[in-house]
Amino acid sequence: xxxxxxxxxxxxxxxxxxxxxxxxxxxxxxxxxxxxxxxxxxxxxxxxxxxxxxxxxxxxxxxxxxxxxxxxxxxxxxxxxxxxxxxxxxxxxxxxx
Length: 97
What we know:
This protein is α/β, with parallel strands linked by helices. The chain has 4 helices and 6 strands. The two termini are about 15 Å apart. About 20% of the residues are buried.
């Protein structure tokens, strides 16, 4: 399971991206846990959106342990609440609150 760091900002995004790609390429079922995220910026949100899209394009399953209030609030502010948090419509994505 991939654990997002507490700070998902411009400083951590590249290292996080590399680790995520390793995780994605090593399994057909990818699990995320965002419970540790305390701070995220727009680059961190873009990384999450890009990774979710990439996983779907690879026909892999994503199980997302979504408990970070920071991520939920950030997606709500950008208007992505329906797409990401409630009705994600990408093949194989399962949200677990």
